[in-house]
Amino acid sequence: MTTTPDVRAVSADIALSLDPQAAPILRNARPDIDEQPMSRAQRILVGVFVFVPMLALLAAIPFFWGWGLSWHDIIIGAVFYWVSGLGITVGYHRHFTHSSFKAKGWLRVVMAIAGSMALEGPVITWVSDHRRHHKYSDKEGDPHSPWRYGNDAKALAKGLLWAHMLWLFDPNQTSQEKFAPDLLADSKLRKVDDWFPAYVAVTLLGPALIGGLWGMSWHGAITAFFWAGLVRVTLLHHVTWSINSICHTWGDKDWAARDRSTNVGWLAIASFGESWHNLHHVDPTCARHGALKGQIDQSARVIWAFEKLGWAYDVRWPNEARLNGKLSPEATRRLGSMTVRNEKAAKAANPADRTAA
Ligand SMILES: [Zn+2]
Ligand SMILES: [Zn+2]
C-alpha cells in the first residue's frame, strides 16, 4: 500500500493515517466514493443547523398574523422569491455559469438583474466563485466544500458552517479575469454588474412600495418590507447555501460523481430544482438537473418555456447517450421528460455539441 492507486482503494481513515496533509486530495481522488453512512449525531447536527431558524420563523407567523403579517405580504414575498430565485438558478447558474442554453440579449440582461435581486452578489462575482467550485469540487481550492476540515463529526460541523455561509467572508477573492473572461468581455453585463447597488434597493424597497400602495397604508409598507423583503431574502439565501452545504453532505447518489455531491428531494421545490446537485456535478452544462423521472425542476421548466417562446435556443437537454453510462447502481429511476433519447436526435437538437465543456 505504498503507491497512489493502492491508496485510492483503502478507506478514508487509512488514507488519513498515511498522510494527514494529503488526505483531502486522496479522499477525493477516489473514482466511486464509497461513503460510510452519516452517523445519527451528524444528521441531527445538520437538522439543527437548517431547521431551527426556519421553525422559529414559522412559529412567529401565527403571532404576527392579522396585525403584522397578511396575505399581501405572503403574495408579494412569493413573487419576489420566485423572480429573484429563478434569476439565480436559470440566469446566474444555468445560463451564465454553465451555458446550458443560449439566450437573446435582452433576456440575458433581465436574468442578470433578476439574479442580482437575490442579494447573492453581482453576477460576475457569483459566476467566478461557482466556476471555481466546479473546477475543484470538494478538493483543495473549492471555495465552499463542507469537507475542507476532514471527516469526523467536529470537522464536519465546522465544514458545514463554512460551506453554508462562512466562506462568504473568505478574504481570498476568486479571480474574475481567470474564471469569467467571457462575462467581463460583455459590456452590457458589466453594466448590470456595476449597477448592483440599485438592484439591492429595488429588491428591498420594491416590496415596501407595493405593500404600501396595495394596503394604502404605512403599515402595509412596513410589513411588506419585513416579510417580502428581509425574510424572503434570508429564506432564499439559506436555500441557496444549502446546495453548497447539504447537497455536498448527505442525500441520494443517483449518479457516479467524482465528488460528494448529492440529490436532495425535499429541497427541490424551494431551490427550483437546484438540489438535484448530484446530476449537476456529473453533467454541469445540462439544462435540467432533475433529469430522472419525477424529479421536479422548475428552472428546467422555465428554460423549456423560454425555448418554446423562441427566447432561448441551443438548450442542452439531458441526453440519453451521454448520461446512461453515468447512472450509479443505486439509482432506481430512469431519465424523465425533456431527455434527448438517441444519438441521431441528439445531433439534430444540438448540432454544435459542447460535451467537452
Ligand atoms: Zn456543488
Ligand atoms: Zn454549477
Question: Keywords for this structure?
Answer:
357 residues, mainly alpha, 2 domains, globular, disordered N terminus, binds zinc ion
Question: How many domains is the backbone divided into?
Answer: 2
Small molecules bound: zinc ion
Order of helices and strands: HHHHHEHHHHHHHHHHEHH
Which class best fits the helix and strand makeup? mainly alpha
Folded structure, characterized:
The chain is mainly alpha-helical. It folds into 2 domains: 30 residues, no CATH class; 314 residues, no CATH class. 57% of the residues lie in helices and 1% in strands. A two-stranded antiparallel ribbon has the order 1-2. Helix 5 packs across helix 6 and helix 5 packs antiparallel against helix 12. The two termini are 35 Å apart. The N terminus is likely disordered. One zinc ion binds next to helix 14.
Brief synopsis:
Helix content is 57%, strand content 1%. It has 357 residues and is mainly alpha-helical. Helix 5 (71-97) crosses helix 6 (105-116) and helix 5 (71-97) runs antiparallel to helix 12 (196-215).
